[in-house]
Amino acid sequence: MGYPVKKVIITVKAEDAGTVESMFRNVISSVDKQDTLVMYTIYIPDEMLDEIIEQTHTTLDKDKPVPTSRPFWTDLLTMIRTTAPKDEHYPLIEVSSPDFVISPFIDSLKEQFRTEKKRKEKTPIEKILSSIEGSSHLDWDKVSLAAIAGLVALIGLFLNNVGIIIGAMLISPLLGPIYALAITIAVGDFKGMLRCTRIIGVLILLLAGIAAGITFLLSRFMVLPVTTEIMTRMDANSIYIVMAILLGLATIIALSKGIPEGVAGVAIAAALLPPAVVTGISLVIYPSGFFRALILTLQNVVGLITGSLIGVVLLRIGPRDLYLQWQATNLIEKIALLLGVLIVLLVIISFLA
Prior knowledge:
The protein is built from 14 helices and six strands. The protein is of the alpha+beta class. The protein folds into two domains: 2-122, Alpha-Beta Plaits (2-Layer Sandwich); 127-352, no CATH class. Strand 3 (28-33) and strand 4 (37-45) form a beta hairpin. 37% of the residues are buried.
């Protein structure tokens, strides 16, 4: 019977082969020995990948005591950076996903795993960090997509057309940076957190700025209507914070279950895109609603980040290293306190508004 599997290829120098063999002796499928290198091929069911990583607490650095908090390939990469010459390329670890593999060995391995330890499938943190790499950096693609989404939303708001507004949500790039922000906080990456926060801020300011600029130009030639869709984004009711928290939580859970970003991202865009655009619109043609639109935008930003952070905590997304876990916990506690204070302030301000 065919199962979705991961193919792991580990290439090491011949003198380090014994460590790999002792560590993976129960799952090695093939060994290719060359003059100075040995290549091990391992096939494992998808749900075993994180388990395999968790069980490999050792290092190839024979002169150091065996650590208890780092997985096998974390230590390999650490050792390469600290002890190997610059032209050194090994150990080399490659993880890929074949279309399918049919093997009695894989069948028995899967059954053995289910029998010995039944646990829910968990996406390896290495894969999660890889998935947010593109979202944690500001580039022209994000800027251009945000600009286009803002223009489309602007048209939909002035035409009072919900369909056009939803279309703008579909192309909005706001999901990636918020998801990346939650992950960087969960793994204790302070610099990454600041980078993602800056991206979110830039994109929201861009949406509001473009909306204000285009609205100002159009208002020179025509009378622009304050439609129902615009007015509804000037209601700074504190209930929207709760809604944003739930949306952020649901989005993280959806992404962890493999729901496409395009679908999950609509929830984020629905909360952020129209209020940010209305903030720019109101600044020009309805100044009395500017403050309420701005507060609603801030409520949604804080709520979405809070919900996303709750999601990664509930899903137990975090680093493997014990020291990094402690570091991440401290960062999460500080950010949670900050978000709590911001939520209280926004609730108070919304009542005053």
